[in-house]
Amino acid sequence: MDGAAGVERGGGPSDTAEGGRLPPTGSGFENEWAQVYEAHAPAVLAFARSWLGNAAMAEEVTQDVFVWLWTRCEAFDPTRGSLRSYLLTQTRWRCVDVIRAEESRRKRERRVAGVSELHAVPHHEEEHAAEERREAIRAVLGALDQLPPEEQLPISLAYFGELTHKEVALVLEWPEGTVKSRIRRGLHRIRHGVFHQLEMATEVG
Question: Tell me: domain 121-205, CATH 1.10.10.10, correct?
Answer without folding.
Answer: yes
